[in-house]
């Protein structure tokens, strides 16, 4: 079996609760219970069964949808209990047979997506007052424990049998791929020598020792488990939180399904098109209309009333879908050109109004969501060139973030072209390692950031160049040739080297847990994934579940 | 309770050099009091002070492994024995077949071995717990003695496994040995590891079915472990098999005696109604077979199992009578297995190593079929028209690839609703248990037997059937 997308229909990321195969959410006031009940026969691809609550991309697409909808559709929820709907097993992690039979690209993209979902869980706990707790009512291995690690608290059933484990190293010759190692020592601060034992013991750690080592926050006997978890959930849901104002009525996230044309997906505000011969794609984002700006200027209640039709939410959901679709379905597209359409001044006005309304819970969620989508862009392993080549391009405010996220920003030197900074460019949309894209770009000159913050006005190409926002400023005569050559040159280089190089250059500054997770994922895990000891014909991952035993090349590299 | 090594050595018959092994002494000194405490709490209730005519293994010699005498159970000498080996031990299966066996735990296989041993060990105290109240309703002194013999030997098997944990697995091994005394059969919070060992065994029909079917799983597990490349495990389990044979004898002949008695009562009753005569009717016996046989099938593990493949490939666990096979790697072949696909049964070829649980289950099923033929011969000889049968191995399963589907006793795929509608016809019901408990009245007179069971053909170790196997009078 080959799970590469070429032989299969493209992966789609839109879903909704009526289509879930693997999850169920029960709402009880301020508490939501997310039940994982994976349908073993409903894998996204043929050739493996999702036994013991193991998961594949399809399961995680639903989980991502659950997490997102909880924030937008259920703002009344304070505590989310993640637990298993199957007896005696919480989650066995990513399905090993799925991994073993997948292409490298599929594994890498799968891991990245699942990581982003785990980060969304932490983001909801940190920024939306939706605290996730994991109730491990059975054995919890690998990705299952990593899902638990993304939760603020972990409760384990103490029945002499249920264990938490990260068996990837001893069993499969790979690493835990969703941040397990980092979260064990950095987030939970498990002592690193104990972590060493934990991560090399396939069967994991049970009960009291798991508690003593800090791998879980509480253990309860089986007969009292449900009751004690309910008690914890209740206490957590009643915790004192400084809730943002605004009527706590959920906003339903309706479909954003694009029109699909030949080499094109057209959403309302976003278009993704691609040129298979040139191996390039173009994402164009339309800025807000005058009506959109007027609406936002009416403040929180009006923004709330606009719901999922709000430009800032809808456009970003579309961009998110386009990025995911591109990652999984356009594998050989190495370079993505980012364009914007609209009015730069209008984007700034929009941002100002939205930022001013940020105390309203829904406006806040919209901003947090925007930040997450932009982080998805930062973390996409394709080259991005932002092209500001038309006089209606609108690289300003939140849309300037696209240019700041891009590896290069080409700007047409035309007196009608405008670039602008607004309130969202100075920390409201942080990168995964914390700082704003602007401060990352101007790392050599922090004072400049402060200076620009005070100006916050539209700039012509020359001023933008002076401010350090532009990579290459080209006049009309040079534009076509120079951009064509740059695009062709980029497309000709080694995709692997470019991926590594971009990941090194994009995240200037100090690391945090999240950036460590992604950095180590791309550096170590993806390297191990292609090493013969994991995926060669005699590698541990290849042979898992097969009658032969793995053989390792014992040289340390 | 045990304060010094001299005591320890005297108390524990062994051929493992206990007197010179400080590490082992230290571990056992600590564990022994906990074990005795567990035995007092969870062993046979209320019979601690009675003399029981028991067999004790005091050495591995021909005349040492079966020493018969009266003994009070808490004073039973739980010993530690390895089967002696003349020739050099070899790894008998898997990738390293033919190489020298391991006399110490190879680091590479430490976790897998520990898991195998702990899982096996956990069944030993579990069955003692399941059977702890049965002494009160024994159908005869002969049967009561057999029950206690089984119990003390399960205790000794626990010792044998704990020896391996203490001797070869360091601190982790000691922790696991302690945990073996903490789990409890049927306890919702600290259940025993395997399902069948948490099922209630509260009357003698279940006891005989358990020793017939569930202990027989034990025989096959032990036989597979007796092929292990980890020499101490192979030699320990080999010795355990000699004792396990008695448990199977108790189960198989116990069921046979019930069958025989029921056939007599069937003939005796004008309407052929066994229950009317206070006996155990054949439908109920069949439901008991269906229940315990299928729970025991679960114990062999998944039909398609990467663990089974690993254990075989690494030489940790072989097939039943691995020495009878010509080829010990089993790398090429496949095993054809009925599986449920798209709502119906079809066949799939599974790599042989991944089907090793099924290969072992085959040997077990074969053995059970032999016992059924024997019981049916008893029925035939007694002139009864009734015949008993083993259900399909797909029926009433809680583990493996059939667990999520419903089958009738002949193995046809049916709906879960259909199964539930006929469950009471097919497996033991609460009302069955009520009836059985109502007829299970103790029979404590030497040579006397309860109405629902025939006497055995001979006594223990040449003693007459009316021998006082348990001295109940003070």
Automatic annotation (TrEMBL), chain A:
It comes from the Bacteria. Its EC number is 4.1.2.44. CDD domains: crotonase-like. Keywords: Lyase. It holds the Pfam family ECH_1. SUPFAM superfamilies: ClpP/crotonase (SSF52096). Gene3D superfamilies: 2-enoyl-CoA Hydratase, Chain A, domain 1. GO terms for molecular function: lyase activity. GO terms for biological process: fatty acid beta-oxidation. InterPro entries: Benz-CoA_dihydrodiol_lyase (IPR017633), ClpP/crotonase-like_dom_sf (IPR029045), Enoyl-CoA_hydra/iso (IPR001753). This is 2,3-epoxybenzoyl-CoA dihydrolase. The gene is boxC.
Automatic annotation (TrEMBL), chain B:
It comes from the Bacteria. The keyword Manganese does not apply. The keyword Oxidoreductase applies. GO terms for molecular function: oxidoreductase activity. One of its GO terms (biological process) is phenylacetate catabolic process. Transmembrane segments: none annotated. Keywords: Oxidoreductase. Its EC number is 1.14.13.208. One of its GO terms (cellular component) is cytosol. It is an enzyme of class 1 (oxidoreductase). This is Benzoyl-CoA 2,3-epoxidase subunit BoxB.
């Amino acid at each position: 079996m080959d799970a590469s997308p070429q032989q299969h229909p493209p992966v789609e990321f839109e879903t909704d609760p009526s289509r879930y195969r693997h999850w169920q959410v029960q709402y009880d006031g301020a508490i939501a219970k997310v039940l994982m009940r994976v349908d073993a026969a409903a894998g996204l691809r043929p050739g493996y069964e999702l036994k013991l609550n193991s998961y594949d991309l399809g399961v995680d697409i639903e989980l991502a949808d659950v997490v997102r909808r909880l924030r937008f559709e259920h703002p009344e929820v304070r505590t989310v209990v993640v637990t298993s709907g199957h007896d005696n097993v919480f989650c066995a992690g990513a399905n090993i047979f799925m991994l073993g039979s997948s292409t490298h690209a599929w594994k890498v993209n799968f891991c990245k997506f699942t990581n982003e979902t785990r980060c969304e869980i932490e983001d909801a706990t940190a920024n939306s007052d939706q605290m996730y707790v994991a109730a491990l009512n059975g054995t919890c291995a690998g990705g299952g424990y990593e899902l638990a690690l993304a939760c603020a608290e972990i409760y384990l059933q103490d029945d002499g049998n249920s264990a938490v484990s990260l068996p990837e190293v001893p069993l499969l010759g790979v690493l835990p791929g969703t941040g397990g190692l980092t979260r064990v020592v950095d987030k939970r601060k498990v002592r690193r020598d104990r972590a060493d034992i934990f991560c090399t013991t396939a069967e994991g750690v049970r009960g009291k020792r798991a508690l003593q080592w800090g791998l879980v926050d509480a253990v309860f006997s089986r007969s009292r488990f449900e009751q004690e978890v309910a008690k914890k959930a209740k206490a957590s849901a009643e915790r004192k939180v400084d809730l943002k104002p605004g009527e706590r009525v959920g906003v339903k996230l309706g479909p954003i399904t694009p029109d699909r044309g030949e080499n094109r997906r057209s959403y309302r505000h976003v278009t993704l098109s691609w040129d298979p011969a040139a191996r390039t794609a173009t994402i164009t984002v339309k800025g807000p209309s005058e009506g959109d700006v007027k609406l936002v200027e009416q403040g929180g209640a009006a923004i709330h009333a606009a719901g999922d039709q709000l430009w800032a939410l809808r456009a970003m959901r579309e961009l998110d879908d386009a990025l995911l679709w591109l990652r999984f379905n356009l594998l050989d597209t190495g370079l993505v050109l980012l364009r914007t359409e609209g009015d730069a001044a209008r984007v700034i006005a929009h941002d100002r109004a939205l930022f001013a309304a940020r105390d309203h819970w829904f406006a806040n969620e919209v901003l947090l969501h925007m930040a997450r989508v932009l982080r998805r862009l930062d973390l996409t392993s394709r080259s991005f060139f932002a092209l500001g080549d038309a006089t209606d391009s609108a690289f300003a405010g939140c849309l300037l973030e696209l240019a700041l996220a891009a590896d290069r920003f080409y700007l047409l030197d035309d007196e009608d072209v405008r670039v602008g900074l607004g309130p969202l460019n100075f920390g409201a949309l942080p990168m995964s390692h914390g700082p704003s894209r602007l401060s990352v770009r101007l790392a050599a000159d922090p004072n400049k950031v402060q200076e620009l913050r005070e100006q916050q006005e539209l700039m012509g190409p020359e001023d933008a160049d002076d401010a350090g926002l532009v990579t290459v400023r080209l006049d009309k005569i040079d534009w076509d040739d120079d951009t064509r050559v740059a695009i062709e040159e980029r497309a000709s280089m080694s995709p692997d080297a470019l991926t590594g190089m971009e990941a090194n250059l994009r995240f200037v500054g100090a690391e945090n847990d999240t950036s460590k997770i992604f950095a180590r994922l791309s550096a170590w895990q993806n390297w191990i994934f292609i090493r013969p000891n994991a995926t060669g014909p005699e590698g541990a991952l290849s042979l898992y579940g097969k009658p032969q035993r793995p053989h390792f090349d014992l040289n340390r590299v | 309770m045990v304060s010094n090594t001299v005591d320890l050595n005297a108390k524990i018959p062994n051929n493992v050099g206990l007197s010179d092994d400080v590490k082992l002494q230290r571990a056992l000194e600590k564990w022994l009091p906990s074990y005795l405490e567990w035995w007092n709490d969870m062993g046979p209730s209320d019979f601690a002070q009675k003399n029981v005519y028991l067999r004790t293994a005091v050495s591995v010699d021909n005349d040492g492994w079966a020493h018969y005498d009266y003994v009070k159970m808490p004073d039973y000498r739980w010993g530690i024995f390895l089967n002696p080996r003349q020739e050099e031990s070899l790894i008998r299966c898997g990738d390293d077949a033919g190489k020298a066996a391991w006399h110490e735990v190879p680091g590479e296989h430490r976790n897998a071995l520990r898991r195998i041993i702990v899982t096996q060990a956990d069944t030993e105290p579990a069955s003692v717990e399941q059977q702890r109240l049965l002494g009160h309703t024994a159908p005869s002194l002969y049967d009561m003695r057999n029950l206690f013999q089984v119990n003390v030997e399960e205790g000794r098997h626990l010792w044998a496994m704990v020896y391996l944990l203490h001797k070869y697995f360091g601190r982790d091994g000691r922790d696991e040995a302690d945990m073996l005394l903490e789990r409890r059969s049927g306890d919702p919070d600290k259940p025993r590891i395997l399902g069948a060992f948490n099922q209630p065994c509260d009357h003698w029909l279940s006891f005989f079915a358990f020793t017939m079917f569930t202990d027989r799983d034990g025989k096959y597990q032990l036989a597979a472990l007796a092929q292990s490349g980890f020499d101490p495990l192979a030699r320990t389990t080999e010795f355990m098999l000699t004792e396990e044979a008695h448990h199977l004898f108790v189960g198989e002949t116990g069921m046979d005696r019930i069958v025989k008695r029921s056939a007599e009562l069937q003939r005796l009753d004008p309407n052929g109604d066994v229950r009317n005569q206070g006996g155990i009717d054949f439908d109920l016996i069949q439901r008991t077979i269906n229940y315990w046989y299928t729970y025991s099938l679960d114990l062999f593990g998944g039909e398609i199992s990467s663990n089974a493949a690993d254990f075989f490939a690494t030489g940790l666990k072989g097939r039943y009578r691995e020495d009878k096979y010509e080829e010990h790697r089993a790398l090429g072949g496949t095993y054809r297995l009925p599986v449920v696909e798209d709502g119906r049964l079809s066949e799939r070829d599974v790599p042989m190593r991944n089907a090793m649980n099924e290969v072992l289950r085959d040997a077990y099923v074969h053995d059970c079929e032999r016992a059924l033929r024997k019981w049916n011969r008893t029925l035939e000889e007694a002139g009864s028209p009734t015949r008993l049968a083993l259900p399909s191995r797909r029926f009433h399963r809680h583990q493996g690839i059939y667990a999520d589907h419903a089958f009738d006793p002949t193995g046809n795929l049916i709906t879960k609703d259909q199964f539930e509608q006929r469950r009471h016809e097919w497996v033991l019901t609460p009302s069955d248990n009520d009836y059985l408990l109502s007829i299970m009245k103790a029979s404590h007179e030497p040579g006397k037997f309860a109405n629902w069971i025939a006497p055995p053909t001979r006594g223990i170790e040449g003693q007459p059937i009316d021998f006082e196997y348990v001295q109940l009078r003070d």
